[in-house]
Structures are given as C-alpha cells and as structure tokens.
Amino acid sequence: MSATPVQSEPRETAAPSRTRMGGNPTAPTASPDSQSEPAARLRSSAEISQTQAPRAAPRTSNRMPNAILVRLSNIQWKRILPFLGGLIVAAVTLVLLSRWLRSLPEVQSFLLTFPGNPTLPESAPTGLPAWMGWQHFLNMFFLVLIVRTGLQVRHEKKAPASFTPKEGSFFSPKGSTPKKVSLTQWLHQSLDVLWVLNGLIFIVLLFVTSQWMKIVPTNLDVIPNALSAALQYASLDWPHENGWLYYNALQMLAYFTTVFLAAPLAILSGMRFSTWWPDKNGRLSKIYPVEIARKVHYPVMLYFVAFTVVHVFLVFFTGALRNLNHMYTSRDVVDWVGLGVFILSLVVTAAAWILTKPLFTRPLAERFGTLSK
Ligand code: HEM
Ligand code: HEM
Questions:
Q1: Which of 141, 201, 332, 372 is the most buried (most CB within 10 A)?
Q2: How far is the C-alpha of 280 from the C-alpha of 174, rounded, in Å?
C-alpha cells in the first residue's frame, strides 16, 4: 500500500523503543548516535527553527506557527498530492457509479427487497438504556488514553522511567519473569485492565438486557442488506436512520466487528508482549511468536481509530442531536442536552489526558513494582 513508505521513517526511530519493551528500557535508545538519519534531520531542522524563532518573531508571538511550518515542510507533498488526487477521483467515480447503479430497475427492486436494515429477532428491545451510555463513555475515555499511550510506547526515544513489577504480583503473575518496561507501557497496560473490565461488564449487560440482538447478526439477510446500505451511502442518498429501534446492516456489522473481533484481537496480541505473558512456558511462546502479535496489534489500533472517525462522522451527519440524546441521555428526543453531556465527556477525557503525566502516574506505579531511571 502507498502508506508503507510514509510509515518507514517513524518505524526506524521506533525500533529501539520496541527492543526496550522486550526487556530493558534502558537499552540504547536515547543515544543520538543510534538515531536514524531522518529523525536526526527532523530534530536539527526543528532546533534550528526554534533557535531562530525569537529573533525573527516579535516578543508576543508564540512558536506554534513555526512548529507547524517545520512540520509542513517535512511532509512529503510529492507523494501525498498524487495520492490525494487519486483518492478524490476514486471517490467521485464511486459516487457516479453508485448513482448509475441505482437508476437500473433491477437494482431498484433489490433496494426495495433489502432496504438496508437486517431482520432482528422479535424480542429485540427498543431504545438505548442508561447503562449503555456509561459503558460507551468509559469505552471512549479509556480507548483515547490507550491509543495515546500505545503510540507513546511506539515512538518514545527515552522512557520517563522504568518499571519492574514485583515477582508474583499483578503485573508479573506466576509463570512470567518480571520484565523491566517503560513507565509508559505500565500506564498502557493499566488502562488496558480498566478498558477490558469495562468491556466485560458491557458484554454481560448486553446479553442480560437482550441489547446484543441489535449488534449481533442473527439472520443471513444482513449480507444483502449491508450491500444495499453500502450502495446507499456510496450514492450519497443515505439509508434511513433510527438507531433507537435498529441499526442498519453496515452499522450492525461494524459494531459487531469492533466489540467481538477487534477488541479480542487487541487483547490477544497485546498480552503477548506484555509483562503478563507466561514466558516461562517455552512451548506456548513458540506456538505464538511475538512477531505475529506485533503484526496484529498496530493494525488493530488503526482499525479502532478509523472506525471511530467514520462512526463519529455519521453520528453527527445523520441527526446529531437525536443520536447524541440516544447515547448520552437515553432519550429519543431532539434537544441540546445530549450534546451538552457529550461535550462534558470530552472535557473529562481531556482532563485525564493532561493528568496522565509521570508526575501523577509514578506514585501509582510504585505500588505495583519498582521504578528506576
Ligand atoms: C466521541 C465519540 C463517540 C460518539 C459521539 C459516539 C456516539 C454514538 C451514538 C450516538 C451511538 C448510537 C447510535 C444511534 O443511536 O444511532 C453509538 C453507538 C455505538 N458506539 Fe459510539 N460514539 C463515539 C465513540 C465510540 C467509540 C470510540 C467506540 C468504540 C471503539 C464506539 C462504539 C459504539 C458501539 C459498539 C455502538 C453500538 C452500541 C450498541 O447499541 O450496542 N463509539 N455511538
Ligand atoms: C488488553 C489489551 C492490550 C494490551 C495487553 C496491550 C499491551 C501492549 C503492550 C505491552 C505494548 C508494548 C508493545 C511493544 O513491546 O512494542 C503495546 C503497544 C501498543 N498498543 Fe497495546 N495493548 C492492549 C490494547 C490496545 C488497544 C485497544 C490499542 C488501541 C486501540 C492499543 C494500541 C497500542 C499501540 C498503538 C502500541 C504501539 C505498537 C507498536 O509499537 O507497534 N493497545 N500494547
């Protein structure tokens, strides 16, 4: 894919931090000699621009515009522009093609037979209960911090501190050797625990309250209905929305994939290189090589991010106020309360983002192991 060469630069600089995860966080990561050339180039141009900034700019201006300029000049426009152009041409072609398809009588009768909504079991519940609002908020809250700390683990050149769990403790249970990892990885793993706990409660409640019927396909007509919904989205004449009663087939498949495939994959792959992995069991480690886990973990994160972008876009462009009230106030009405609660949830998430600094995480980590430089 065209994304590979673009990714190659950060990957090189990330390699040392990856070595660190396997064991010693003090591995040769911080040494300037060990930096890849592109990283060194990036840094020196940033340093140059920063040292020049106060002279060139009046006292009142901040350095932000300069930093943005440096970043913009580092973007490989020659590669990106043709890619963007191609993307726009492909999108326009897709819309025109879908519109043409929809003008065919056979396709019109297909859309009448399969309007896009899968058949639900008769006992499927209506509405979204309050517990789901809470679960959904906590999921988003933890996921934002998990993606952030995951990316920090991937890119950090020097860990803020190292964490070694106590033998036989929560972060290094029987069967595993206490591994020295970065404080950031400890935070990532701690957030994972909370996210998984929240997810387990979500799944139990989903089944206890029959809400699962709205996101688990139970009828094969989900496939033609998903095709129908895809065609409607692509032709920019979107399927009728009523999330209070049902999701369309594409939504159902996307929610199912997120909850029942992507989340377990993130857990299974993350476990493999975490401090929890029972590395004393050589056979198990051989059956499930760490390279496989690495190949899965990062793309799963990309899936979560892509899902969230499309999901939030659709929430906002298919009746934002009503949709937000469904999820954030458990009501099927159009008013501003849901949006207010949603904004509040963003503020809480932003506060947590600011507070997850070593200053606050160190004392917590010390309860579970020892910290060193
Ligand atoms: C700021 C971000 C988000 C907003 C505003 C948002 C909003 C919503 C809304 C309004 C619904 C109900 C849809 C409807 O009534 O038509 C919904 C459902 C859902 N969302 Fe989100 N969402 C967000 C982030 C996420 C994230 C990060 C995930 C998971 C990765 C997620 C997973 C889901 C799932 C699985 C459902 C279906 C729940 C069910 O009925 O069982 N959402 N979301
Ligand atoms: C129980 C669930 C999870 C566990 C146990 C886990 C564990 C880990 C560990 C131990 C690392 C350090 C990897 C290394 O050695 O390079 C890591 C990295 C990472 N994690 Fe997770 N993680 C989990 C869930 C997630 C989720 C849900 C996301 C995002 C949606 C995520 C995103 C990342 C990213 C982006 C990295 C950096 C990957 C790389 O360097 O290639 N993790 N995770």
A1: 141
A2: 9
Whole-prediction pTM: 0.82
> 309 C-alpha to center of ligand 2: Å?
20
Residue 190: how many CA atoms within 13 Å on its side-chain side? 19
Quote the ligand 1 centre to 140 CA distance (angstroms). 9
Ligand 1 pocket, residue 324 CB under 6 Å: yes
| Pocket of ligand 2, beta carbon within 6 A | 14, 18, 21, 143, 146-147, 150-151, 153-154, 185, 188-189, 192, 196, 266-267, 270-271, 273-274, 294, 297-298, 301, 304
DSSP state, residue 172 = B
Report the candidate in 253, 250, 257, 254 with the shortest Cα–Cα distance to residue 230: 250
**How far is the centre of ligand 2, averaged over its atoms, from the C-alpha of 212 (Å)?**
27
We find that the CATH architecture of domain 114-372 is Up-down Bundle (1.20)
SS3 260: helix
Are the C-beta atoms of residues 166 and 369 closer than 8 Å to each other? yes
DSSP tag of 371: E
Structure confidence at residue 43 (pLDDT): 34
Question: What is each CA distance from 314 to 119, 209, 239, 260, in whole angstroms?
Answer: 22, 26, 11, 21
Amino acid at 236: L
> CA-CA distance, 335 to 322, in Å (whole number)?
7
Q: What is the Cα–Cα distance from 258 to 265, expressed in whole angstroms?
A: 10
Q: For residue range 307-337, what is the model confidence (pLDDT) as tens digits?
A: 999 999 999 999 999 999 999 999 999 999 9
Separation of alpha carbons 367 and 360, rounded Å: 13
258 lines ligand 1 (CB under 6 A): yes
- 161-216 pLDDT tens trace: 999 999 999 999 999 999 999 999 999 999 999 999 999 999 999 999 999 999 99
Domain residue extents for the chain: 114-372
